[in-house]
Amino acid sequence: MTWAPPYCTASDLQSWLGGGDTVELALAAEAASRAIDQATGRQFGSATQTRTYRPRWHRNCWYVDTEDIMSVTSVANHDSTAITDFILTPRNAVPNGRPYTGIEFHGGTPFAWYGGYPVNHHHSVITVTGEFGWPEVPEPIKLATQIHASRLYARRDTAAGPLIQKDVDDVSYKWGTATDLDADVESTIRPFRRIWAAA
Q1: Looking at the whole model, is its pTM more than 0.70?
Q2: What is the structure's pLDDT at 163?
């Protein structure tokens, strides 16, 4: 799988809709996939990459929040010193069918200290090489992408966008929802949303 792929194909959408132009369906699938990325705070492709992080002192150990990661090939300090004493977290990610989202460091990890206390500064960085992302696109994400892509594809016939109207007593409220995800898409992707902690 590639990094940030479309989560459904033009053929998937053709089957879903019962027809349609393959070029426009492919564009809708790509746009819907990126909207899912933004809404969930993650993406569901995979690739071997090297990324850089700044560790923070958390509950008596060094810790970094990472993008979704399936496996780690190597971890190194800012001076390329290999780091081997670490644990991928959450510990039960794989049994739960999820990627890891952090690394916890122990033992003699060579990060910066000053006066007996941990210090976060520009030298305290690590590089992580591994397989980032998801092993495969979850079925709920594929379904949500099809729903949202179908909506985008329908915009060719409704360029002004959908309009919602609700009557309360004798007052009528109208609003457009062109920038919102469909309610079914929202409920489908909710379990996959990632909330990034401020460090």
Answers
A1: yes
A2: 52
